[in-house]
TrEMBL record:
Name of protein: Uncharacterized protein
Organism per entry: Frieseomelitta varia
GO CC terms, sorted: plasma membrane
Length: 104
């Protein structure tokens, strides 16, 4: 893909040189060389940026996965507390009914 991109860039540079009459062989060669080096440099920078972005995205994914696991665990703990509180509430209601029956 890089070769195709460089070829297209070089071809368009040659067309521009022909169109504007700056078709000196040494300047054409140097211009093409400079343009190709500049393009390679820009592609390396973009590749590095993309790799850093992907690394941050992976870190965020791991962080979110851990946070989701913690929240799931806490939710299940709360659900078990809810069940236990309902049982205790039923026992308290039963005890209150017994006390009210004894006092009557």
């Amino acid at each position: 893909m890089l070769e195709k991109l460089l070829f297209c860039y070089e071809y368009s540079l040659i067309i521009c040189c022909c169109k504007y009459g700056c078709f000196n062989a040494t300047s054409r060669h140097e211009d093409i060389k400079d343009a190709m080096l500049s393009l390679v440099h820009m592609m390396r920078e973009n590749t590095e940026k993309l790799e850093r972005h992907e690394a941050r995205e992976r870190q965020l994914g791991e962080h979110l996965k851990k946070a989701l696991a913690v929240l799931t665990k806490r939710t299940s703990t709360i659900e078990s507390f809810k069940t236990e509180l309902a049982k205790l509430d039923e026992k308290v209601i039963g005890i209150e009914q017994l006390i009210s029956q004894v006092s009557d």
